[in-house]
Amino acid sequence: MRLPPPYTWHHESGHCVLAYLRGVAIKPPGIGVYANSGKDAYGEPDEAGICHLAGISPDFGPITLRDLATDIAISMAGPVAGHIYLVSSGLGMRSWETMADEWGARYDRRSLSQDELCAFSSALAWFCDLRRTLRYLSAIRSATEHILRAHWPTVQNLANYLGVQRSLSADEVTSFIQLSEAGTSAKSGQGPAPSDL
Ligand SMILES: [Zn+2]
After folding, report:
1. What is the pLDDT of residues 78-118, one digit of tens each?
2. DSSP annotation string for 60-127
3. How far is the CA of 12 from the centre of ligand 1 (A)?
4. Is residue 197 part of a domain?
5. Fewer CB within 10 A of the end CB, N or C, for the chain?
């Protein structure tokens, strides 16, 4: 299944909104989307995206384990936002396992994305204590989905803006989220109804 471009817009916006809410800065050059080469086979989206965050992606600095739960939550926020978009648009349901494919699809690159940090951490922990790991990741994922649904208007606004602009600077993203949060703070709980993941 090829995923429509808005999937990627919501995916990158999910990373940004959760990072903003957890006090992690969006870094220059910001975020962007571009046509996917289509070389990957794992249900890749029609458009690929990139999101630069302070202290998380090894592309732009060392991984710090200062707050692993926060890093994992921000990593999960991309696929989770994409999932909420697909379900709320009636375009289908991606399972937890399908999201794992997304994390595993780009292992041949020399650097890790923030999503891959999540996959690596879960794989590492998998060999240590599976049940404890799954409880840990499941709890973070539930919290991530809850937060994104509570701030869904902001995710949607940013996603649509990104789809039109194609790239946004770090300052533009931060300002946009600030403005959107100010405009929707009085209307919490506007997100689509929770799914039974
Ligand atoms: Zn991502």
Report:
1. 888 988 898 888 876 654 444 544 544 444 343 455 565 66
2. GS----TTHHHHHHHHHHHHHHHHHHHHHTTS----HHHHHHHHHTTTTSSS--HHHHHHHHHHHHHT
3. 6
4. no
5. N
